[in-house]
Design a protein that fits this description.
Elements lengths: L13 H7 L11 E2 L5 E10 L6 H9 L4 E6 L7 E3 L1 H10 L3 E4 L2 E2 L2 H7 L3 E3 L1 E2 L11 E2 L3 E3 L2 E3 L4 E5 L2 E5 L4 H23 L4 H12 L4
Parallel strand pairs: 2-3, 3-5, 4-6, 5-7, 6-8
Antiparallel strand pairs: 1-7, 2-9, 2-12, 10-11, 12-13
Helix pairs in contact: 1-5, 2-3, 3-4, 5-6
Length: 210
């Protein structure tokens, strides 16, 4: 069987994936889209750096594969940046999918101009230094979620959800079922059904012989 790819989740909302994953994997809600791109899918390339030190993400931009999402643990500070315009230009050229970080970013005009997907904890004018190489492809903690290299990142305007690579096939199957369930409920509501009608339908679906 072919391994699950990030693109397999392309038609599903982050909230749907979260529900299908057992209400797990969601990053803290303060990590929000910075630019105009409101969708992000890819495999995590993890980065851990010292706050205010950008050398780790500079190296990560060159190390990551096209389609990867840089998941940057910058220590959670919003008083200096771990991403900016020059990094966005290079990452866009190399075909990276986007960035998710618990740190702050700057040069938002460039991020928006290029349409590069960035989710961050804040925006800050203050830059940093480039001294420490940081750490790459280990397990990081971003938005209260442990993220390993190769995990699947699904993000939209509602937030960021991380699917562990080892659970991707199971979560994808459950996501398809959850999506069908949500569409069925919405259709009933659009056709005049009440919440009670939907709840009864949910209960019927949960029966073993349904």
């Amino acid at each position: 069987m072919n391994p699950v790819q990030p693109a397999d989740f392309a038609e599903y909302a982050a909230a749907t994936v979260y529900e299908a994953a057992g209400k797990a994997g969601e990053m803290a809600p303060h990590i929000r889209p910075v630019g105009d791109a409101h969708r992000l899918l890819g495999r995590a390339f993890t980065v851990r750096c010292w706050p205010s030190d950008g050398l780790a993400f500079m190296r990560a931009v060159e190390m990551a594969a096209p389609g990867d999402v840089l998941v940057i643990d910058g220590g959670g500070t919003d008083r200096s940046t771990v991403w900016g315009g020059s990094a966005t230009i290079r990452a866009k050229y190399r075909g990276l999918a986007g960035v998710v970080t618990n740190g702050a970013v700057r040069d938002v005009a460039t991020i928006r101009e290029l349409g590069f997907p960035v989710w961050a904890a804040g925006i800050c004018v203050r830059g940093g230094v480039a001294n420490h190489p940081g750490w790459h492809n280990g397990v990081v903690s971003v938005g209260d979620v442990a993220v390993a290299a190769g995990d699947i990142v699904v993000a939209d305007i509602d937030g960021v959800v991380v699917v562990p690579a080892g659970a991707a096939a199971e979560v994808l199957e459950k996501t398809r079922a959850q999506h069908a369930k949500e569409r069925g409920a919405d259709e009933r509501l659009r056709n005049g059904g009440s919440y009670d009608d939907v709840l009864r339908w949910y209960q019927a679906l949960s029966k073993p012989d349904s």
